[in-house]
UniProtKB/TrEMBL annotation:
One of its GO terms (biological process) is tRNA pseudouridine synthesis. It is an enzyme of class 5 (isomerase). This is tRNA pseudouridine(55) synthase. Its EC number is 5.4.99.25. Pfam families: Pus10_C. Residues 2-161 form the Pus10-like C-terminal domain. It comes from the Eukaryota. Keywords: Isomerase, tRNA processing. One of its GO terms (molecular function) is tRNA pseudouridine(55) synthase activity.
Length: 161
């Protein structure tokens, strides 16, 4: 199954989060989605993947983040579109932390597009900068002339594990 999810909580990891064997949060996006879906699919196991990651304290808004859940040895494999819509509604009604959209069943070969998109993705950021000491108009003009800026970012210590 594939779809998109929005994450509204700043205290919800994407996947179960353990540091040195200790669980850091009680649930995750993966668990909230897969628990309800697997009640119907009844798979032996599952694999959750998404196009990119977000930090636990970051919401995922807008059109949502693409994801795929691969169900391993499912007992129920033939679902109608109506059943898929009902599953999506069940997930959305079960929590205020995450919402699903565009849930659908796809072939395994279609999953590769999600992975390809993750490798080719670029990010665009917008920043509001404030200064208590004023600003230099010439420096701002120079910045405004830039069409692209490459930002090199180190992994924050809080997520380095």
């Amino acid at each position: 199954m594939v779809g998109r999810y929005n994450k509204y909580s700043r205290e919800l990891p994407q996947t179960p989060w353990f540091v040195e064997g200790e669980r850091k949060q009680s649930t995750s996006v993966q668990e909230l989605l897969s628990a309800i879906l697997n009640n119907t699919i009844k798979a032996q196991d599952l694999k959750f993947s998404s196009s990119g990651r977000e930090d636990v304290d970051v919401r995922c808004l807008g059109v949502g983040r693409p994801f795929v859940i691969e169900f391993i040895n499912p007992r129920h494999t033939l679902l109608t579109q109506t059943q898929v819509v009902v599953l999506q509604c069940a997930v959305n009604e079960s929590t205020h932390l995450v919402k699903l959209r565009h849930l659908q069943i796809v072939d395994k070969k279609d999953v590769k597009y999600l992975k390809e998109g993750e490798e080719e993705k670029t990010k665009t950021y917008c920043a509001l900068c404030l200064s208590t000491q004023g600003y230099n108009t010439a420096a701002l003009d120079k910045l405004n002339e830039l069409s692209e800026v490459s930002v090199e970012q180190k992994t924050p210590l809080r997520v380095l594990h």
